[in-house]
Amino acid sequence: MSITSASLPDLLAFDDPETLPALAPGIDLPRAQAAIAEFLRALGRDETDPHLLDTPRRVAAAYAEMLTPRETSWTTFPNDDGYQGLVLVKDIPFHSLCQHHLLPFRGVAHVGYLPGERLFGLSKLARGVELFARDLQVQERLTQQVADWLEDTLAPRGVGVVMEAEHMCMSLRGVQTAGTMTRTSVFTGLLSDDGPLRGQFPH
Ligand SMILES: Nc1nc2c(ncn2[C@@H]2O[C@H](COP(=O)(O)OP(=O)(O)OP(=O)(O)O)[C@@H](O)[C@H]2O)c(=O)[nH]1
Ligand SMILES: [Zn+2]
């Protein structure tokens, strides 16, 4: 089987090669494809089985996609009206990959901030979650990274990030406790103290 980087659009199986995103730094699709082929052999699988023939390509492309955030612009606006209240986007669906088992964890994020001089376009809060979730992660680090990014980008008066997720490494294997949800949270600035504003976050 020949593996060339020229077949990138095929590897990712996007309909339109023009929309092919740049892959996250360090991802080498042909190498990943070869490694998955070897992994299947190590699991004792018959690589000539028709259903398995294209599986190394598919798996490499799937992991590349799950590890590459979509590109976006990070639009902010001046807070001309001096809005002082909480901006909170709730129930942002996200998925990530557990750094320990390479299995998905998925759930929802609630991301909010108390504006200073700048406002984010609302969609950017959801895109910010994706920016850090499309990585090999642990949930605590992911939550902290989203909070740090908001702090660094907006210099708001406070930030709150709450993430709730089910880890497939706990559901499908090991302890096998399907349905358990792990909640992590980071609150900074004026949201550090528990109070009515912080009470607007799901708890
Ligand atoms: N803190 C934290 N732990 C995680 C996360 N994702 C997975 N883990 C845990 O990482 C741990 C790895 O533990 P090990 O004992 O080295 O691995 P293991 O033998 O596969 O553990 P079991 O899952 O208990 O079978 C497990 O307890 C997982 O539940 C995460 O996002 N944060
Ligand atoms: Zn895991």
UniProtKB/TrEMBL annotation:
Q: Where's the GTP cyclohydrolase I domain?
A: 33-201
Keyword Thylakoid appears in the UniProt entry: no
Catalysis performed (reactions): GTP + H2O = 7,8-dihydroneopterin 3'-triphosphate + formate + H(+)
Keyword entries, A-Z: GTP-binding, Hydrolase, Metal-binding, Nucleotide-binding, One-carbon metabolism, Zinc
Pfam short name (any one): GTP_cyclohydroI
Q: What class of enzyme is it?
A: hydrolase
Q: Which GO terms describe its molecular function?
A: GTP cyclohydrolase I activity
Pathway where this protein functions: Cofactor biosynthesis; 7,8-dihydroneopterin triphosphate biosynthesis; 7,8-dihydroneopterin triphosphate from GTP: step 1/1
Record's signal peptide? none
Annotated residues that bind Zn(2+) are located at: C98, H101, C169
Q: Which InterPro entries match?
A: GTP-CH-I_C/QueF, GTP-CH-I_N, GTP_CycHdrlase_I, GTP_CycHdrlase_I_dom
Question: What's the EC number here?
Answer: 3.5.4.16
Describe its partners and assembly state.
Homopolymer.
Annotated family: Belongs to the GTP cyclohydrolase I family.
Give the protein name, as stated in the record.
GTP cyclohydrolase 1
Species for this entry: Arthrobacter stackebrandtii
